[in-house]
Amino acid sequence: MVSVGLSTRDRSVRYRGISLVEVMASLLLLGTTITAVLVAQARSLRTISLANERMVAAELARELITGWQLDGTDVLVAASGQFPGRENWTWSRESTLREVQDQVRMREVTVRTEHARADGSVEPFSYDFVWLVNENANGQ
Questions:
Q1: What secondary structure letter does DSSP report for 106?
Q2: What SS3 state is found at 30?
Q3: Is the pTM here over 0.85, yes or no?
């Protein structure tokens, strides 16, 4: 009798499944991809958080300087303090004398804000402002 069709060997080749090595390689690739995505997302969230802190720091420094201008505060004197209503934000101010031209000097005021985080770390932000205070060489 002549058999028509595929032999046993041909059938096993035809219905072959995925090997364990292929499954393991696929899982390794998937795990690596997921890990890379999670690391990128964590870095992105950290960058967004830092950008938000910088924005708040700039806003607080700007409000502080505007208040000093309106109050007539002597900005040439070094000072420091805490922002009202923001117990984890502090500021400090220092003034540096700069010579602009012969016999003409100007004060550069640096305002630093610091944010104390919940984890105990402190993030400093520094803003330099040129205050319109002219002094000649005689100190007038």
A1: E
A2: helix
A3: no
